[in-house]
Design a protein that fits this description.
Elements (H helix, E strand, L loop, with lengths): L8 H22 L16 E5 L7 H13 L3 E4 L14 H13 L5 E4 L15 H6 L3 E4 L4 H11 L4 E2 L24 H8 L15
Parallel strand pairs: 1-2, 1-3, 3-4, 4-5
Amino acid sequence: MQRRTFLKPPEWRHLHQVFRRFVLWKKQIRGPTVKLHKPPRLRAGMTIGLIAPASPFSAEKLAAAQQNLAALGFNVKESVHLHAQNGYLAGSDAQRLEDLHWAFSNPAIDAVWCIRGGYGCSRLLPYIDFDLIRRHPKVFIGYSDVTALHLAIGQHTGLVTFHGPVAASDFPGKHAAAFPLGTDGTCGRIYSTYSGCCRPAGGMTLISRL
């Protein structure tokens, strides 16, 4: 086989057509580009809506979450179905979806913080009211299974969310070096990130800075 005759003009045209179809397909599955917008900054004294959109949690995890958020200077308001449990899920799909919508629509809630990850967020995706979230932009925080919500919210609303520690994470205890306590008793760098006044150590630029 000679390299010069391996791909003749007809083959090139075929490859070009395949590539064009692939590009069109990618555009279709991505949908229209959504303009990013940032939620209002957090301030000490604001209220966090605590939700469990995935797996249930222990009493120890709830106590840790309440302590963590209090250390950051926030008030905490539990969602209606926070303590519900349905097997390996923190309540039924309808209950967890209702809590998510409640947290974004409630004017008394300034930010939405997931208590833990686990499994279950992907089950909510077809039923989320993204228009509601778009009309009520708030800081939204969590990781692990919550990543599914980050991606969906970002794609459908353009809201900037935070892939950060769940409320029941081991901070500032286990990760005290990364999240030093401030003189006012807050967990310094975490609070600074979500309040928009942070510049991480080492001169790094905080991409998700508000």
